[in-house]
Amino acid sequence: ALKKLSKEDKYKGLKTLIHNICNKNHGRYGYRRVTIQLHKQGIKVNHKVVMRLMKEENLTCKVRAKKYKSYR
């Protein structure tokens, strides 16, 4: 049980950053773009960690509806 707690605390700050990035982009960013944004902020983190944390927090990428274009 103690190991579980230490892991939660380890990514507490990262989770808030991921939440901020997702909210700023209205949930349009997936784990890849979130990872890129974290790298730009100087936070070196593996994309798999970001993917797992986003899955835990139920942060998913909402895809925009494509506009219909009948004319080529």
Describe this structure in words.
This protein is mainly alpha-helical and 72 residues long. The protein has a domain of 36 residues. Helix content is 58%, strand content 0%. The protein contains four helices and no strands. α3 packs across α4. The mean pLDDT is 85.
Short description:
This protein is mainly alpha-helical and 72 residues long.
Relative helix content: 55-70%
User: How much of the sequence is in beta strands?
Assistant: under 5%
Task: Tell me how many strands there are.
Answer: 0
Task: Kindly provide the radius of gyration, computed on alpha-carbon positions and rounded to a whole number of angstroms.
Answer: 15 Å
Structural class: mainly alpha
Task: List SSEs in N-to-C order.
Answer: HHHH
Which spans have pLDDT < 50 for at least 5 consecutive residues? Answer: none
Q: N- to C-terminal separation? A: 60 Å
SS element count, helices: 4
Give average pLDDT, whole number.
85
Task: Please give a handful of descriptors for the protein shown.
single chain; 72 residues; mainly alpha; 4 helices; 58% helix; elongated
